[in-house]
Amino acid sequence: MSVVTNTTTIGAIEAPSRRNTELMMLAFAVAVPVFAYINVGLAIDGKLPTGVLGYALGLGLLAAVAHLVVRKFAKYADPLLLPLAVLLNGLGLVMIWRLDQSPRLIQRAEAQWGAFTPDAPKQMLYSAIGIALFVGVLLLLKDHRILQRYTYISMVTALVLLILPMFFPARNGAKIWINLGPINIQPGEFAKIIIAIFFSGYLMVKRDALALASRRVMGLYLPRGRDLGPILVVWAMSILILVFETDLGTSLLFFGLFVIMLYVATERTSWIVFGLLMSAVGAVGVATFEPHVQQRVEFWLNPFAEETWAQSEQIGQALMSFGAGGTLGTGLGQGNSDLIMFAANSDFILSSFGEELGLAGMMAFLMIYGLIVERGVRTALAARDPFGKLLAVGLSGAFAIQVFVVSGGVMGLIPLTGMTMPFVAAGGSSVIANWALIAILIRISDTARRPAPAPAPSPDAEMTQVVRP
């Protein structure tokens, strides 16, 4: 008996978009900061804060706009990146508002500058601008591989951004700002994204030469001289940034990002060892003749010395605030970390979280950062093109390095670097640049998770005879 059937093409199975999961997580990410806001108000004066409704509507609206754009233009993106960023941004707004309510900070600011300007309204504005940039990136960047065309343009742009602060006055001993009238820009925050784009494009082309064409010396595979040139240039640039701008944080971020991406591109452990040796040599060399770096190291080694306390009391105060928090913390709005000057608009805002949330809350807080890095690395593993893999790793690595150097400096693990805690510390450059970073990661994850289109059915499909006995 014979049966004649038509062959048909079975399309690719539609992958779940996970947008509803993202929406539920966003609702949670908005609810937690709103409850924290209410908690702070009750702790300060025993009643609901008058601005809680405006804060809830503002944060919820920003999250809803971002979600709708992702749902429409990045349907298959990672469902956790956006809620995690919204949660951090919301908690940062709450802590900045909490510090704005401190009578001690208000009196200190009025005595020193003659007036006190709250940071929370400005931070909400910066967050809105960051979400607008997030939306713009997703709308304009249809495919992340387009960025590969601008490899060397991005290198020039990054160099300009890193060099410009040298021509402006130093703030707190470091030249990391561009002052344009009332507008202050920290170009290093944007440069980390542009540098990651350059490194991704460059290493995608040169990775075979860096991985295979090398010589073995004392168990390490060292590159040829022609391939070592760009690495030495990057090393020299990081040293020059440290010397002329006395910016330890950007220097560490710049060189650490390159070493991470080199290791991922070549899979050579020798690059990690080689990078650590070069960074150690550079740091020791600069510290021998640069007074500002020497001072940072001295303050780190002796945070409670009389000379340190007279010039930089914030280091010792931050350590005491962590100790005062204990395991469970003093409670939101009930700590004394507002005694730290510039607590809201610097890396020291982390000590406010440490005191009022305690060790348990601090571990959860850092875990949120860790989850963003993990989702970025997961996106890199899922990416189908080498440029996307390197770019996702680079952006995740830059984010991780910044969190490490900031938290490590505030907790006394390493010298202070002067960088800001992503999404949390007050400042427009940081929150805007990090929203752009999240947008690029979402675009890469959308491309990586998007199912391949089903092949079109052939018009010449033939009848197939299936013979059954």
How do you describe this structure in short?
With 469 residues, the protein is mostly helical.
What structural category characterises the helix and strand content?
mainly alpha
Give the averaged pLDDT, no decimals: 82
Distance between the termini: 6 Å
What's the shape?
globular
H-E string: EHHHHHHEEHEEHHHHHHHHHE
Strand arrangement in the largest pleated sheet: 1-6
- Low-confidence stretches are 1-13, 461-467
Backbone CA Rg: 25 Å
What is the element layout, followed by pairings?
Blueprint (H helix, E strand, L loop, with lengths): L1 E5 L12 H27 L6 H22 L7 H20 L2 H11 L6 H21 L10 H13 L14 E3 L2 E3 L1 H26 L1 E4 L2 E4 L1 H20 L3 H19 L2 H19 L3 H11 L4 H6 L1 H13 L23 H34 L3 H26 L16 H22 L13 E5 L2
Antiparallel strand pairs: 1-6, 2-3, 4-5
Helix pairs in contact: 1-2, 1-3, 2-3, 2-5, 3-5, 3-14, 3-16, 5-16, 6-7, 7-9, 7-15, 7-16, 8-9, 8-10, 9-10, 9-15, 13-14, 14-15, 14-16, 15-16
What does this molecule look like?
It is built from 16 helices and 6 strands. The chain is mainly alpha-helical and 469 residues long. Strands 1-6 form a two-stranded antiparallel sheet. A two-stranded antiparallel sheet has the order 2-3. Strands 4-5 form a two-stranded antiparallel ribbon. A hairpin with a 2-residue loop joins strand 2 (178-180) and strand 3. Helix 2 runs parallel beside helix 5. It comes from Streptomyces jumonjinensis.
